Amino acid sequence: MEVYYDNAATTKIIPEVREIMLKTLDMDYGNPSSMHTKGIDAERYIRYAREVISKSLKCSANEIIFTSGGTEANNLALLGICEAKRRTGDHIITTSIEHASVYNPVLRLEELGYRVSFLGVDKNGIVDIEQLKHELCDDTILVSIMAVNNEIGSVQPLSEISDIIHEYNLSHKSNIAFHVDAVQAFGKYRLYPSRIGIDAMSISGHKIHGPKGSGALYVRNGVKIKPIIYGGGQEKSIRSGTENVTAIAGLGKAAEVAYDRLDDNVSVMKNIKDTFVQKALEIDGVVNNSGNASHISSLSFEGVRSEVLLHALEDRGIYVSAGSACSSNHPAVSNVLKAIGMDEGLLDSTLRFSFCEYNTVAEVEYTIGVLKDVLPMLRKYTRK
Fold first, then answer.
1. pLDDT at 324 over 90
2. I need a surface site. Which of 9, 129, 257, 301 has the fewest CB within 10 A?
3. pLDDT band, very low/low/confident/very high, at 205 (cuts 50, 70, 90)
4. Are 239 and 293 part of one and the same domain?
5. Do 294 and 305 fall within a single domain?
6. Nearest CA among 210, 215, 223 for reference residue 181
7. Which of 185, 216, 193 is nearest to 77 (CA)?
8. What is the pLDDT of residues 165-175, one digit of tens each?
9. From the CB of residue 222, how many other CB atoms can be counted at a distance below 10 Å?
10. Domain final residue, candidates 212, 228, 260
11. Catalytic annotation on 326?
């Protein structure tokens, strides 16, 4: 049996997505900026995707900027908003558990002279609200906090965070922007940025059975943002470059399917996750670090290195992750696990199991059986 439990890293494209992508490759392959029929036909796919995504977010279609993925969307939000606000302040607030596509641009901004405050989190990975209140100041221009953590699945209280920023803006006559990395939340939650009070929000296609290299940034009308890519003025001159019609069409279809089936999908994923975690905790030496997200679980296995267990599971056809896929080429102790205060002995013994609506209880039973089989054997060879 093959079991894919790395859906937080990427998902398999579904047939509906593949079909629309092939149409853009085989028939409607024109440049969407061209004025002839081929160009107009290609542009329809972009308009369709923009309308689908804006409908799912309950925002205006002109607030959606297409990007090459979540990483570019995060970079555009951080670098673009800070550049636009440079004259009004130089202070950025984020958290200690952000994805590398937020964390590293923030470090770059720090090199450029911006001041950065990193908020701590509790043992469940939830941001320190009191510290946020304390860090807000007259020089603050941007707060960036992810919706769902990609390693442990903690779900942040976005509405409460937004209310705090909004109240500060009103009382201090400030204009602090609120950015949310929603890559792990889009397609799993109903997120309405304008209602919550989010100014910019990043999404990605390949986490919801769309293609890799597809993403978008929601930018609330009125929010100033500078481009980080210059060229022909596509995407309201915020993201120049000929649009990747194939990827955008796939993203739009994936979003449409995800939100048409949202309640059923989330119910399936939650049942799979809860069943898996419950059965895994019946095994000796297993510790649960999982947050509330329906599709992500983090488990530590005492006495076994995560990389060793990962490959032992792979040998049995089970695919999991030792952390963020975007950090896999640079092995290091996870900032997220350290931030939640994990026991040092478990930092290198933790795996992420992430689910989708196509996983089954039979796969859970198989995986639990494999864990019961391999853990005792691996623990015998643990380095002293």
1. no
2. 129
3. very high
4. no
5. yes
6. 215
7. 216
8. 999 999 999 99
9. 8
10. 260
11. yes
Distance from C-alpha of 76 to C-alpha of 82, rounded to nearest angstrom: 10
Residues 216 and 298 in one domain: no
Considering the domain architecture, whether residues 22 and 160 belong to the same structural domain is answered as: yes
Does residue 254 sit in the same domain as residue 235?
yes
Provide the number of structural domains found in the chain: 2
The answer, as to whether pTM is greater than 0.85, is yes
Residues 155 and 239 placed together within one structural domain of the fold:
yes
Catalytic residue among 59, 82, 137, 326: 326
Nearest of 157, 175, 158 to residue 166 by alpha carbon: 175
Pairing of strands 296-301, 286-288: antiparallel
pLDDT tens digits, 249-295: 999 999 999 999 999 999 999 999 999 999 999 999 999 999 999 99
CA dihedral in degrees (164, 170, 172, 173; nearest 10)? 140
Range of the domain at 58: 15-260
Here the tokens at position 321 are 């992750």
